[in-house]
Amino acid sequence: MSVPTQSALPVVIACGGTGGHLFPGLAVGEALEARGLAVRYLVSSKEVDQRAVRGLDPRQVFTLPAVGLDRSGLPGFVRGFLRARRACLECFRAAPPEAVLTLGGFVGVAPVWVGMRFGAATFLHEANAIPGRANRWLAHLVDEAFLRRIPYKIEVLDPTEEAFRELFRLVCPRMGIEYDAAAVDHLIEHHYKAQGRPYRSCQPRD
């Protein structure tokens, strides 16, 4: 397991475990590389992953020791997550990522978790109509989530700043939290305006 030595801030794509996670991730990476971005792939040790990445530059590929929950039970999953977390820390210290994208599966849990601590933007892609367990966990952590296979699509516009503040005022009492205008001011100024992030209607509740 070699640590990449790229100097450019890369986009990390965690896409291993099954072909349904892996090949869409490789396709996204190919499109990003065509736009001149550095891409690093985090995959599992499964044979399907290792075969698919053989043609890539070895410096682009990092194998994680992640373990799925169903196969190993909770103790095995926790041990696998901790090993994957240590591996991600090693990998990201060598070349801190600018963004982390997970295509689903437990291979993506540690990269998103560690990527957040390195200040990376985090994204999730769910290809199934019913999200998998790992993506349901990560949906509350990532900056943005992308969904597919939704039979009907309705445009939902982002709220204005005034409406966003009102959502906090409405949601806090329902969740047993005292509304703090100064805390909301700080969040909007430093997390949204300073970072150029759009407001999302679901975020005050999340």
What can be said about this structure in brief?
With 206 residues, the protein is of the alpha/beta class.
Explain this structure.
- The structure is a single chain.
- By secondary structure, the protein is of the alpha/beta class.
- 44% of the residues lie in helices and 13% in strands.
- It contains seven helices and six strands.
- Strands 3-2-1-4-5-6 form a six-stranded parallel β-sheet, sandwiched between helices.
- α3 (69-94) runs parallel beside α4 (109-117).
- The longest helix is centred in the middle third of the chain and has 26 residues, at 69-94.
- The chain is globular, with a radius of gyration of 18 Å.
- Residues 1-7 have low confidence and may be disordered.
Supply the key terms.
alpha/beta; 206 residues; globular
Give the biggest sheet.
6 strands, parallel
Q: What fraction strand?
A: 5-15%
Helix and strand composition category: alpha/beta
Annotation field: number of helices: 7
Low-confidence stretches: 1-7
- Average pLDDT, all residues: 83
Order of strands, widest sheet:
3-2-1-4-5-6
Quantity of strands, as a count? 6
Using only CA atoms, what is the Rg?
18 Å
**SSE order, as H and E?**
EHEHEHEHEHEHH
- Write down the overall geometry: globular
User: Separation of termini?
Assistant: 37 Å
Helix-residue proportion: 40-55%
